[in-house]
Design goal:
Largest sheet of chain A: none
CATH architecture of chain A: Orthogonal Bundle
Number of domains of chain A: 1
CATH topology of chain A: Helix Hairpins
Distance between the termini of chain B: 109 Å
Strand content of chain B: under 5%
Shape of chain B: globular
Strand content of chain A: under 5%
Oligomer: heterodimer
Distance between the termini of chain A: 53 Å
CATH class of chain A: Mainly Alpha
Helix content of chain B: over 70%
Number of strands of chain B: 2
Structural class of chain B: mainly alpha
Structural class of chain A: mainly alpha
Helix content of chain A: over 70%
Chain lengths: 100, 777
């Protein structure tokens, strides 16, 4: 049985990896993947909590979060398509319309 | 009815309303409520109807001013205005009838409260600094106050508003210059009427002030009616700002009164003006003085008189109504309202020690009377002569009121009542006569203007021709017989020809001022007493001069030779007012108006115990053969100089026969050959002298005021402008510059890149987490 602390530590490491990816990469799809990594890092934390407390609630939350993440990816990819139609690019370096 | 032309039919509309409206009220009231007609209950309609008509004319006129029916049927709003004023006049007459038949029932006045406008609690600070409610539910009410004073002025105002509106229908609507904008004139005219009627009926100083300001506004708007002329725009500003000086003092006076009495209602203040002897006479004196300065501004007295002559830039009906007959009387009304404060006799409960204010009032009156009459000597503009005459006659009334207040304050009740009554009677006579004189001058100007347009080539616009300049007139007695007769009667009333209205009141004022000086020991009144006696003679001179220059001799311009009288709308009010000036004043004076105008209770006794014939004989004997020898002397001196010396000198200088073949109306025909009996004086040397020049330039008052303004207000304004530019605007510019530069820096953070925003969000979240961590540990 893997101790809950290990799972939480892995979650923290994955979260930092995802965060760094979000900051450093320009391609929107890579950024979305990094966001997914961060999300799953959080899911790992839920699992760790569930193990630690011996309670099923954490598992249930994880299942719901994965389902919602799937829907969210679909929405994210649709947004990128729309962005591409608008700007001919999905690089964050080219898209700076937020400052207007 | 078919024989009546359309224009004649129109006469019947206002007259019909005048006669029918009360019956509608009477029978309508009986039918609807089963109670008899009470004029007092309807009195609030007197100012309300004109007030409601004002927006109707303004809006309809603005929308439809190009339409044919608006010009023909509605006379550009004039028909609506005159119908409203006819209703107001008929209600006024019914109110007067009810007042004189039923009396006040022993009260000060007939009162009628309409509703409470504002009610509030008065807070006060106690010794230990906490705020508590001192009085609960103090109400500023709206109500009606009718006593002989307000009733007299109400009648004058309603009657003259009606007649002058009638005159305007002939005067304003026939002049092409007014086309498409007469609705503005009539709208402001009825708003003014509402202000005047409301001011007179108001039952508190607060409402008096509000209506007073409405009148000031209308005066400003109507003087500036021809706003495209720079002189008219300037005159409007001048009138507004000069009266504003007085109004500020009036407001201060009212605030002092509120502080002293905790209310501005007449019923509270006049109930006991000394509140059982607790009111501080020193403070009250200041309040009275401030109210008087307000009156000085409104009634164009020295030293705030400079606006009135310039106010003649307005249309002539405006000069007749506002600047001669009604609005300028508002100041007199205010001073007359002060009587209860001064009345320390057994009938009143005023405050002692206000005699100084009364002396100031009388002196102001005396100085203005003499100064205005002097300036009127040399004016060539017919309306300016009348304007200065107005100032001078109002000053008579101020002198009479000042003396009356002094007598009230020194416990001489009977003499005070007579001085007061004489002053108010002079107000009545002067308003009627001067309203008519202005309308007559309007008739002259109108016909001169028409004749000028007629004789000059249509293409050749001779802009130098001044239809108001008497040097262009002369010989009009045969061309304008009704106008000439009306003007002769009006002038006679102002001069004080024995038996005509103005004689009774003016002699009354002079006699009372002199008897106050000689019998009651008001030694300070000697100066105004001399001045107004002198002014009586000067009045005779300038009024005769004006009449002679306008109507006698040979025509002095081509236009004057071609003038003729046309419009019946113009003639009717002249005839009506001639009759009133000729007979009305006479009858009223024989009925003892001088007594009951001052004291409402005397009305019943005026005719009661002696019988009418005895009263008449008594009045005539009192006027011509008073008991005291010196009064006899004063009376006959006044008559001699005002009737013989002044007019004779004017006739020597300006009199003359008409041109060959011309003849005047039989009523005035004798005047013209008479004027040549006194020979002829050549006054060229006198007219070119420095004195005449100083008078021409109105004794340099405008220059002095300009210099005073240049020395005080303008440097101060410059300092303030510098302060505004540098300090206030500088501060604002500094704030603007600072925020601009800060935002220029901050703007750089907004890159638009999503990653930077996420970074900021992360940094923010981490810092909050760190803070919570620290707090937890």
């Amino acid at each position: 049985m893997i101790p809950a602390e290990y799972l939480a530590g892995l979650g923290a490491i994955l979260f930092c990896i995802g965060l760094v990816g979000v900051f450093t990469r320009a391609n929107a799809i890579i950024v979305l993947m990094c966001v997914e990594i961060m999300l799953n890092a959080v899911n790992l934390n839920f699992v760790a909590g569930a193990l630690h407390h011996g309670d099923v609630t954490g598992w249930v939350f994880t299942a719901i979060a994965i389902a919602i993440a799937a829907a969210e990816v679909a929405v994210g990819l649709a947004i990128f398509l729309a962005l591409y139609g608008e700007h001919e690019s999905i690089s964050f370096d080219d898209i700076t319309t937020l400052k207007h | 009815m078919a024989v009546l032309k359309n224009t004649q039919l129109k006469f019947l509309i206002p007259i019909g309303l005048l006669l029918l409206f009360p019956f509608m009220r009477i029978y309508g009231g009986e039918f609807a409520r089963g109670s008899p007609f009470d004029a007092l209950e309807s009195a609030f309609l007197i100012p309300l109807i004109p007030l409601l008509i004002f927006p109707i004319i303004a809006i309809l006129g603005q929308v439809y001013n190009k339409e044919e029916w608006w010009k023909e049927r509605f006379k550009e709003g004039g028909m609506i205005a005159i119908c409203g004023l006819a209703i107001a006049l008929s209600l006024t007459v019914w109110l007067a009838i009810q007042f004189f038949t039923q009396g006040t029932g022993g009260d000060d006045a007939l009162r009628w409260s309409l509703f409470n406008w504002i009610s509030f609690d008065v807070l006060g600070q106690t010794a230990d600094g906490t705020w508590v409610t001192m009085q609960k539910d103090v109400a500023l009410g709206v109500g009606i106050w009718v006593d002989p004073l307000s009733l007299m002025l109400l009648f004058v105002a309603a009657f003259l508003c009606f007649l002058i509106c009638w005159f305007s229908l002939g005067y304003m609507n026939t002049d092409p210059i007014n086309e498409n904008r007469n609705h503005r004139f009539y709208a402001e005219f009825v708003l003014f009427s509402a202000g005047m009627l409301g001011m007179v009926l108001a039952d508190s100083f607060l409402w008096l002030f509000i209506f007073w300001e409405i009148m000031g506004l209308c005066s400003y708007l109507l003087i500036g009616f021809y706003y495209e002329r720079p002189s008219a725009a300037y005159a409007a500003k001048k009138a507004f700002l000069t009266t504003r000086v007085g109004d500020v003092f009036l407001l201060i006076g009212l605030l002092i009164l509120y502080d002293l009495y905790g209310s501005l209602d007449y019923s509270v203040i006049f109930g006991d003006p000394s509140i059982g002897g607790t009111v501080d006479a020193g403070m009250l004196k200041w309040a009275m003085l401030m109210l008087f300065i307000g009156a000085v501004g409104k009634s164009a007295q020295f030293p705030l008189h400079v606006w009135l002559p310039d106010a003649m830039e307005g249309p002539t009906p405006v000069s007749a109504l506002i600047h001669a007959a009604t609005m300028v009387n508002a100041g007199l009304y205010l001073v007359a309202r002060m009587v209860p404060f001064f009345d320390v006799t057994a009938h009143g409960s005023g405050v002692e020690g206000l005699g100084d204010v009364a002396i100031i009032i009388a002196w102001t009156g005396g100085i203005t009377a003499c100064m205005a009459a002097m300036i009127a000597f040399v004016q060539n503009d017919i309306k300016k002569v009348l304007a200065y005459s107005t100032m001078s006659q109002l000053a008579y009334i101020f002198t009479g009121l000042g003396v009356s207040l002094w007598l009230f304050n020194n416990d001489h009740h009977n003499a005070a009542v007579i001085a007061f009554g004489a002053s108010m009677f002079h107000l009545f006579n002067h308003a009627m006569a001067k309203g008519m004189l202005f309308m007559a001058s309007g008739s002259v100007i109108h016909e001169m203007h028409h004749a000028h347009d007629h004789v000059s080539d249509p293409g050749d616009h001779d802009d130098d021709f001044d239809a108001q300049d008497m040097r262009n007139m002369g010989g009009l007695a045969s061309k304008l017989p009704v106008t000439a007769t009306a003007m002769a009667i009006g002038s006679a009333s102002i001069i004080g020809l024995p038996l005509i209205g103005g004689f009774w009141s003016k002699e009354g004022i002079i006699a009372e001022v002199w008897s106050a000086t000689a019998i009651y020991g008001a030694s300070w009144m000697l100066f105004p007493a001399f001045l107004i006696l002198l002014t009586a003679g000067m009045t005779g001179f300038y009024m005769t001069r004006m009449w002679m220059m306008t109507f006698a001799g040979k025509p002095k311009s081509v236009s004057a030779a071609h003038a003729h009288e046309a419009t019946p709308w113009i003639r009717t009010p002249l005839v009506v007012l001639s009759v009133i000036a000729l007979l009305g004043g006479f009858l009223l004076s024989l009925l003892g108006a001088v007594h009951w105008l001052g004291d409402g209770e005397a009305l019943g006794s005026a005719l009661g115990h002696d019988g009418a014939v005895m009263t008449v004989l008594e009045t005539i004997k009192h006027a011509f053969l008073p008991d005291e020898t010196f009064l006899l002397l004063v009376t006959w001196t006044a008559v001699a100089i005002s009737l013989v010396l002044g007019p004779m000198m004017a006739m020597r200088i300006h009199g003359g026969r008409l041109a060959k073949g011309e003849s005047a109306h039989f009523g005035i025909a004798w005047l013209l050959p008479l004027s040549t009996r006194f020979g002829k004086s050549d006054v060229t040397a006198l007219a070119n002298s420095g004195v005449a020049d100083a008078l021409q330039r109105r004794l340099f008052f405008d220059e002095w005021y300009d210099a005073a303004v240049a020395a005080t207000v303008i440097p101060l304004a410059n300092v303030l402008a510098w302060f505004d530019n540098r300090i206030i605007d500088g501060a604002i510019r500094g704030i603007e510059w600072g925020s601009q530069s800060i935002s220029r820096e901050v703007r750089k953070l907004t890159t638009g890149s999503a990653r930077d925003y996420i970074l900021m969000a992360v940094v923010g979240t981490l810092s909050i987490a760190a803070l919570m961590w620290r707090a937890a540990v």
